[in-house]
Design goal:
Strand order of the largest sheet: 10-14-15-13-12-11
Structural class: alpha+beta
Distance between the termini: 76 Å
Number of helices: 22
CATH class of the largest domain: Alpha Beta
Helix content: 40-55%
Oligomer: single chain
CATH superfamily of the largest domain: Histidine kinase-like ATPase, C-terminal domain
Radius of gyration: 31 Å
Shape: flat
Number of strands: 18
CATH architecture of the largest domain: 2-Layer Sandwich
């Protein structure tokens, strides 16, 4: 095989085997809970077997050896000779971890080392015999790499088509089996990586090519043609082009409205419809089921529960909810922290739960749902809940607030204290939690994604943390406003309402400007100060919600809604607080897209600077 073909095969193996190993993590945890589930057992066996076959074809012998030992253990369970126990599952999960490490090595093109003998020993169905290397090939020719023609012949034998250059044999009798079973498939894959078959293989000319098998091969070919793998870089390029088309559409609609030409307006309207359809299709290509994100967590919860000595069931809901693929990776760390927090702080020890009249096994639910153009992911537990009195006391002890402020806090406001930097209720620091680093970082990270994080808790009944993020980050729907001559874009998902200030409605309070609105004091932010122009004259207020906070942004004019593509500002302005990026409006002007979390955080600093400057 030439180098280019070998590289292509290696990349295909990394993608396909990587997907199998991702699913294996969740499947193994499920198998531990239901070791007699034959369907699940067969699925786990097939995954190891398929990875072994691909690794063997690429001559990745350490991976072959590890998968082969895992297969042996699973095969004993499949044949009813062994019931998988916790020690077996520990060994299989360790094997999975090592396979993932090996996959990283294959991707980096670094040599692989053989699995540790202790791990191979633990994978033996009956851990009494010493670990030995797999039997050598029957002959030197058996262990030699196969060429393209030999590999094609083997695949043809699977799908029932004759190898090139062979004589067409007679059709199969009706009693013949049109499919191959697991053992036959295993023998074929073993041939790929130099292991002797159970019996001498027949000559190529003797491989039958019956019509039923040919039909099966045709069905397989059709199925393969119905899907295609696309490199993510190409997909991102397509999304960028679709985004540019959206900007051009906006400009054409603006031009048609300004000129009043009916023919141009009709053409612009048709382009608007087609662009919307194209944008929806392209955005759909970016979507992935949130189950791809969730499948990582059963293993994490299982291992942490074992470490803490707790009994926990993780329930996954809404796995079919679609999410922008860029958000899938961005949400991994925040959700891991929320799950660890629920396990460590929320769920009680089994004895404590039993004493409180609860089941010994705790329950953590990770769910996802779509609400309009936003995705809501919640992590809830049936644990001890949060004690407002403890939260108040810890906040005062750590200097987060003083005693007078603590006494005025409502129960919901007490719960919000967990998002303060450095705040922790843990009595002792561990490698799991207690350092006061995490929940504030989680909230900041979610805010960077244009999302919010809120908490609800009932003492003795459990807690729920709800994370809300946009459905996609590719196209942002905004409310366009004007501040003096500057254009600003405010994320529409955070906009509650717009009103106009009347004389006497706004007043200073504690050095800040507030407005009496709907019976409450609404903090006001004059965006003139934010963009560096002289304040004054801004009487329109856009009410925004950021988490549980509400602020009113004072602007000179509200222009309307628009779909925009957010472009980064570049490294020079990357750390500019309150600005997420820039976009081009329908009439070709530049607008700054506001980062609301940064806006709220920077508002306090801005007022402090203004006070010192007076």
């Amino acid at each position: 095989m030439n180098a280019e073909f070998d590289l292509e095969l290696r990349q295909d193996f990394l993608v396909e085997a990587g997907e199998l190993l991702e699913h294996l993590s969740e499947q193994l945890v499920a198998l531990e809970a239901a070791p007699r589930d034959s369907e699940l057992l067969n699925a786990v066996f097939r995954a190891f077997h398929t990875v072994k076959g691909g690794a063997g074809f690429l001559a990745l012998e350490p991976m072959v050896l590890l998968c082969h030992h895992a297969e042996d253990l699973l095969n004993e369970a499949r044949n009813g000779k062994l019931l998988l126990e916790a020690s077996h599952m520990d060994a299989l999960l360790q094997a999975l971890d090592l396979l993932n490490d090996m996959m990283a090595g294959v991707g980096a093109d670094t040599p692989l080392e053989n699995p540790p003998p202790a791990l191979l020993q633990s994978l033996l169905p009956r851990a009494v015999a010493p670990v030995v290397a797999p039997p050598p090939a029957a002959s030197a020719g058996a262990s030699a790499p196969i060429d393209d023609d030999e590999f094609e012949a083997l695949l043809d034998s699977i799908y029932g088509t004759a190898a090139p250059g062979t004589v067409e044999p007679a059709p199969l009798t009706p009693a013949a089996n049109a499919t191959i079973d697991d053992d036959e498939f295993e023998a074929l894959l073993d041939t790929l990586h130099g292991k002797p078959a159970l019996s001498a293989p027949p000559a190529a000319a003797a491989v039958p090519a019956a019509p039923p098998q040919a039909a099966s091969a045709a069905r397989h070919a059709v199925a393969a043609e119905n899907s295609v793998r696309v490199d993510t870089a190409r997909l991102d390029l397509l999304v960028n082009h679709a985004g540019e088309l959206v900007l051009l559409r906006n400009r054409l609609l603006s031009l048609a409205a300004r000129l009043g030409d009916e023919t141009l307006a009709a053409a612009a309207g048709e382009l608007d419809r087609v662009t919307d359809d194209l944008q929806g299709a392209v955005m759909g290509m970016r979507m992935q089921p949130v189950g791809r994100l969730f499948q990582r967590f059963p293993r994490i919860v299982r291992d942490l529960a074992r470490q803490l000595g707790k009994e926990v069931e993780l329930v996954l809901e809404g796995e079919g909810t679609d999410l922008d693929r860029s958000l899938v990776e961005a949400l991994v760390d925040p959700l891991i922290h929320l799950l660890r927090n629920a396990l460590d702080h929320g769920v009680e020890m089994p004895a404590e739960r039993a004493q409180a009249g609860k089941p010994r096994q705790g329950r953590i639910c990770l769910s996802a749902s779509q609400r309009g153009e936003r995705i809501v992911i919640s992590v809830s537990d049936d644990g001890r809940g949060m004690d407002p009195q403890i939260l108040r006391r810890k906040a005062v002890e750590k200097g987060v607030i003083d005693a007078a402020q603590a006494a005025r806090l409502s129960e919901a406001e007490c719960h919000e204290l967990i998002f303060r930097p450095g705040f922790s209720t843990a009595a002792a620091v561990s490698d799991i939690s207690g350092r006061g680093v995490g929940m504030d970082v989680v909230k900041t990270r979610v805010a960077e994604l244009g999302g919010t994080l809120r908490v609800q808790s009932r003492l003795g009944h459990g807690s729920e943390l709800e994370l809300t993020v946009p459905l996609t980050l590719a196209v942002l729907r905004v409310l366009m406003v004007r501040v003096e001559t500057r254009l600003l874009a405010l994320p529409l998902g955070n906009v509650e309402e717009v009103f106009e200030l009347v004389e006497g409605q706004d007043r200073p309070l504690d050095g800040r400007l507030v407005a009496e609105h709907r019976g409450r004091a609404l903090p006001l932010v004059d965006l003139s100060l934010w963009v560096g122009v002289e304040a004054g004259g801004a009487r329109h207020v856009v009410v925004l919600h950021i988490g549980h906070q509400r602020i009113g942004c004072m602007v000179h004019e509200v222009l309307g809604r628009e779909d925009v593509i957010v472009k980064p500002l570049g490294p020079l302005f990357a750390d500019t607080s309150g600005i997420a990026g820039a976009t081009v409006t329908g009439d070709g002007r530049l607008a700054l897209v506001m980062d609301l979390a940064g806006l709220v955080a920077g508002t306090g600093q801005l007022f402090a600077l203004l006070q010192r400057g007076r």
